[in-house]
Amino acid sequence: MSTEIIKELREQTGLSLGEIKKALDEAGGDKNKALEVLSKKAKIVAEKKGERTLGAGIIGSYVYGGGTAVAMVELFCETDFVAKNEEFKTLANDIAFQIVAMSPTSLNNEDGLGEETALLKQAFIKDPSQTIEQKIEAAIQKFGENTKVGKFVRYSI
To answer: Does the pLDDT value for residue 5 go beyond 90?
Structure first.
């Protein structure tokens, strides 16, 4: 397994070298298979941490085109330490960008309009290979804390 692949996966996921090496070993050195392994592990980690109390968080925002559209989203986590992390803030703002661009109507299809209008089920606009839900699961794995989207709002003219 090449150090180049390990470096790429580290930059892409932000996970520890140990976790990346384990995933590559499990995937027989294949980068794409290792990403799948890491994604499955992220889902398991997210499920385990799902019941933890969310005591901190931030509000992410995005303003489009000189103010013609704007979105705000609550992104909750367990501690201020994570909430103040630049990558966590970027995630919140990326989700707000998603809301401006894709106009979701619900978090998880609570309104019954279909998964294409459910924020968590939408393909992440900056990387369509993963959904918003998968992006959050990866954050849970990376930060080691339960993370959830709260309310969101989108306004446009």
So the answer is: no
Distances (CA, A) of 151 to 5, 10, 58, 65: 38, 31, 12, 23
pLDDT of residue 1: 59
Beta strand 56-64 with 127-131 is unpaired
Q: Are strands 69-77 and 148-156 parallel, antiparallel or unpaired?
A: antiparallel
Q: Is 10 helix (H, G, I), strand (E, B) or coil?
A: helix
32-42 pLDDT, tens digit per residue, is: 887 777 777 76
Model pLDDT for residues 115-128, shown as the tens digit of each residue: 999 999 999 999 99
Place of tokens 């996921």: 13
- 56-156 sits in which CATH class? alpha beta
Tell me, what amino acid is at 13?
T
Residue holding tokens 């925002």? 61
- Could you state, in order of their start, the residue ranges of all structural domains in the chain? 3-49, 56-156
d(CA 8, CA 92): 23
Residue type, 107: L
